[in-house]
Amino acid sequence: MELRRGLGLLTQQFRALLKKNVLLSWRHKRSTFLQLFSFLIFIFLIFLIQKAIQGRYSSTTIYHNVFDPKPFLSPPIPPCEDKFYIKFPCFDSTRIRSIVTRILANNPGRPIPSNKVLKWQSLCLCCLICQFTED
């Protein structure tokens, strides 16, 4: 066999390696089959796992589109009483309410109308005042 140069050498080596690989794959049919079709087996496994997860959570709306959801009601702030598990600061304290009304009434120049007060900001301000004045 004569060695060629350039593009002829490339085609000669390509044909030799292709013939060698065909002979090897013909001798080892089981491993060739596994190499060619293993990706299909793994895709089928992923599909089965996905179907199992969807079957497990079929009663929830995780995998379903809910086009008309039921609205949730937001509960009001619970009253602050002397009970267990009350989280402080408490927002319906009489002390805070009296501080806010005094601030509204004693504004220099004119009293502040109650409709101009942002409730949460005034309550947080009064909570800070209460924390500093309790000492």
Q: Give the strand content.
A: under 5%
Low-confidence stretches: 121-135
Number of helices: 4
Q: SSE string, helix = H, strand = E?
A: HHHH
General shape: elongated
Number of domains: 2
The helicity comes to 55-70%
Count of strand segments: 0
Residue-averaged pLDDT, rounded?
A: 76
What structural class do the secondary elements suggest? Answer: mainly alpha
Radius of gyration (Å): 39 Å
How far apart lie the N and C ends? 103 Å
Largest sheet descriptor: none
Keywords: Membrane, Transmembrane, Transmembrane helix
Description:
Helix content is 56%, strand content 0%. The chain is mainly alpha-helical. Mean pLDDT is 76; it is low at 121-135.
Would you summarize the structure shown here?
The chain crosses the membrane at residues 32-49. The chain has 135 residues and is mainly α. The chain has helices at residues 7-27, 29-56, 94-105, 119-133.
Entry keywords:
2 domains, 56% helix, mainly alpha, 135 residues
SSE layout:
Layout: H1 7-27, H2 29-56, H3 94-105, H4 119-133
Helix pairs in contact: 3-4
